[in-house]
Each structure stands twice: as structure tokens, then as C-alpha cells.
């Protein structure tokens, strides 16, 4: 029986869930996996909460040095979150030859290229399944199940908070502000919800996932990011009328040496498999050149699902004598020869408010036509006083062309405002 001692750094929600699994399922894991995992140390600022979880007092510690110096510890689990002090602690653990399992997407996406060389130099493992999509084994699927393929596309709903908000807006017809308030009351969204609603959380995850999927560094700064705070009840209603639902999608694509990585609200056709992913659930659709589509669905957050991914990494790591590292030149910059796309092609939903009088529609359509943007569907909704709302769905067009056309349209005297501009799948 392989005996493995672990330390947990940070006994908050995810660390607590991890501790629960390791204690409650200890015998099950021992029996089925042949690994006897013991929690030897718990590092936290709050002694009371650690003891309150039933951790023996002698396991509590406050300093990373206690963990780094303890030769009995094999694996360090980091569930503190944020960049510092997690980064310093992880480096100390790796330098003392201990493997690290982390759930920290921000740290991995920002500092992977600094952490991995330290792990490599000390023969330690660095595992982070829990950093992306909680309990859904998307990293393991990419690295251990799809190796035979060139992965060419990745579409994901990888943030549960925004999916909850958009689902409430769609199903209950409520405003963004009210849906956000509900998400906060349920503990999905933070008091400051920016990391989720502005797309940062999904951006970090997409940078990690697309780097692994496409075997090349996709720095998080190169991921196009747009959040959901400008989505209105009107947009949701229009999407429904046109046969779509709005989702915050993370999209990665590789075509030869050209790579796209973007996070933004998207009109998703109602019959698309991602359209049915409701509430706080997550899903990722991966396309490989031989396997075709694989879709993974599940809980992307929470103590138990995220703890499940962490414990899976602990077991995976414990069973290995040597560890794998990235097969590409990990860096905070794009690899040489890779073109990170700054222009995309898509269909677009555009809505604008303009004076309801003869010739206005023609002048708007003319500008779109001048930029090579072809209109697929057009709707005009009842006059609001002297104004009307005009909505378009374009055919596939370059984003650069559409945004340039819109900046001209915005300047037309009869046009009061461009209200929405949303990409369609
Ligand atoms: N806040 C994230 C979400 C979970 O709502 O999906 C952690 O990444």
C-alpha cells in the first residue's frame, strides 16, 4: 500500500471540501486506489476554523517553512487562491521536492511559466485539474484521453455564476441587476462580482485550457474578454424570438498556426448542446480531428466538486514515479510562429435605436453593405415616440468590418444609439 502524506494550505470552502473527502472517503480511496492518503498538516491563518473542522491540533501550522521542512510530506495542496502568498508558498514546496496540487486558476494562468521550471528542476509534479471547471475532468480529458488528436476547437460555459445569472434572466424574465442579486444571495457571486461577471475567471480558465488543447502558450492577456453586465432583458427577449439563448462562452480555435481565444456573451442556437446547460452548471465541448466532439458537463465550482478534482490529482500524482510537464515552450508570450488572432469572423446580433422615418434603414444597410457585411435577418419593433428599435442578424463577417461599420452608423444623424452588439455561434 502506497502511503502519502499531504498538507493543505487554506482550509476555506475548497480546502474544507478537500479535507472532508480525504477523511470521509479515506477507506474507499485506500481500497479502490491502493493509496493511503493522510492529512499531515493544515496551514491556515484561522486556527479556530481548522480545529472546528476536526483537524487534530498538532496538524495545524501557520508557516510554509513547517511544511517545506517536513520530509514526511509528499504532496502540498494549495487552496488559498490569489497570486500571493500562494505563489511563494508553492515555490517553497516545489523547491523542497514536494509535488503541488492547486485549484488556483489565476495563479496558474499568470505564473505557470514560472512555476513549472521549478517543479521540473526538483522532479516534482504540478497538477491543477481543479483550476478549470471545478469537478469536471476537462484537463485530464485533454491530456490523458485526447492525445491522439489535434484539438481544433473548444467551446465552454466555464463560469457558473454568469450562467446562473443568464439562465435566471432567460427563464424568469428578470433584469441583470436582480439576477445578480440572487446569485449573490446564493453565494455564487461575490460582493464584488467583477471576477465572474466581467469574464476574468473565464479568461484565466480559457488561457489554461486552450494552451493545453492547442499545445502552445496562450497568455491570459491575449484572450479577448467581454463580460455580461451589458446584457439586458431586451437582448434576452430578442435572442429568444430569433431562436437563440445568450451564454457567456469561452471559445478557443486552432487552425494551422492561427489561434483564437475569446470570452464573450454569445447568441447560441436553442438546439445547440450548450444551450441546454442551465443554472450554475458548466460544460465544455472539445473537438479533436479523429475523435470528433466530446462534451463534458458538471459542476464547475463548490467545495465538493472542486475537492473531488483536487483529490483526483492527489491520487493521480501519488501513483506516479515521474511527472509530465508541458510539451511546449511554456512562456508568458505566444510561441514563435503562432499567430494569436485579433480579428474574428462571426455572425452578429446588432440592435440600434433610430428615428422611424423613410430612408433610415436604407442608410444603415448601405453602410453595412459598404463594409461587406451582409444582413441575414432584420426586425423593426414598434415606434417609441419618434424612435424605433431595429435589430439585425448578420451573415458571417469579420469583426473589424462590423465594428468599423457600426462606428459610422453611430454617427448618422437619425441614429440615437447602438444598443447591442453580440456575437452569434
Ligand atoms: N466563480 C467561479 C464560477 C467558480 O462561478 O464558476 C470558480 O472558478
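Sequence proposed for the structure above (425 residues):
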Amino acid at each position: 500500500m502506497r502511503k502519502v502524506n499531504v498538507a493543505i494550505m487554506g482550509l476555506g470552502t475548497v480546502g474544507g471540501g478537500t479535507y472532508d473527502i480525504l477523511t470521509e472517503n479515506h477507506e474507499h480511496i485506500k481500497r479502490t486506489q491502493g493509496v493511503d492518503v493522510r492529512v499531515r498538516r493544515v496551514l491556515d491563518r484561522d486556527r479556530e476554523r481548522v480545529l472546528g473542522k476536526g483537524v487534530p491540533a498538532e496538524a495545524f501550522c501557520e508557516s510554509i517553512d513547517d511544511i517545506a521542512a517536513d520530509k514526511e510530506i509528499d504532496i502540498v495542496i494549495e487552496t488559498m487562491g490569489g497570486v500571493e502568498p500562494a505563489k511563494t508558498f508553492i515555490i517553497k514546496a516545489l523547491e523542497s521536492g514536494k509535488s503541488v496540487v492547486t485549484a488556483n486558476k489565476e495563479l496558474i494562468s499568470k505564473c505557470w511559466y514560472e512555476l513549472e521550471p521549478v517543479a521540473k528542476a526538483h522532479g516534482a509534479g504540478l497538477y491543477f485539474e481543479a483550476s478549470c471547471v471545478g469537478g469536471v475532468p476537462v484537463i485530464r480529458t485533454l491530456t490523458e484521453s485526447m492525445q491522439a488528436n489535434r484539438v481544433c476547437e473548444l467551446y465552454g460555459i466555464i463560469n457558473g455564476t454568469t450562467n446562473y445569472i443568464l439562465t435566471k434572466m432567460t427563464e424568469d424574465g428578470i433584469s441583470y441587476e436582480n439576477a445578480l442579486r440572487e446569485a449573490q444571495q446564493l453565494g455564487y457571486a461575490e460582493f464584488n462580482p467583477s471576477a465572474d461577471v466581467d469574464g476574468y475567471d473565464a479568461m484565466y480558465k480559457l488561457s489554461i485550457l486552450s494552451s493545453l488543447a492547442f499545445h502552445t502558450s496562450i497568455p491570459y492577456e491575449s484572450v479577448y474578454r467581454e463580460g455580461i453586465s451589458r446584457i439586458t432583458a431586451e437582448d434576452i427577449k430578442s435572442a429568444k424570438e430569433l431562436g437563440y439563448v445568450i451564454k457567456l462562452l469561452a471559445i478557443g480555435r486552432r487552425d494551422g498556426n492561427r489561434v483564437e481565444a475569446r470570452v464573450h456573451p454569445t447568441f447560441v442556437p436553442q438546439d445547440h448542446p450548450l444551450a441546454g446547460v442551465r443554472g450554475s452548471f458548466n460544460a465544455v465541448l472539445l473537438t479533436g480531428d479523429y475523435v470528433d466532439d466530446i462534451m463534458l458537463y458538471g459542476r464547475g465550482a463548490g467545495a465538493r466538486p472542486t475537492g473531488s478534482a483536487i483529490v483526483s490529482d492527489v491520487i493521480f500524482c501519488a501513483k506516479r514515479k515521474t511527472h509530465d510537464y508541458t510539451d511546449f515552450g511554456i512562456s508568458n508570450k505566444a510561441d514563435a510562429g503562432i499567430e494569436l488572432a485579433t480579428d474574428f469572423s462571426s455572425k452578429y446580433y446588432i440592435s440600434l435605436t433610430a428615428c422611424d422615418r423613410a430612408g433610415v434603414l436604407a442608410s444603415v444597410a448601405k453602410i453595412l453593405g459598404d463594409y461587406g457585411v451582409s444582413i441575414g435577418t432584420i426586425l423593426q419593433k414598434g415606434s417609441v415616440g419618434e424612435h424605433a428599435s431595429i435589430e439585425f442578424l448578420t451573415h458571417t463577417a469579420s469583426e473589424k468590418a462590423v465594428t468599423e461599420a457600426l462606428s459610422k452608423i453611430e454617427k448618422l444623424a437619425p441614429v440615437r444609439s447602438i444598443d447591442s452588439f453580440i456575437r452569434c455561434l
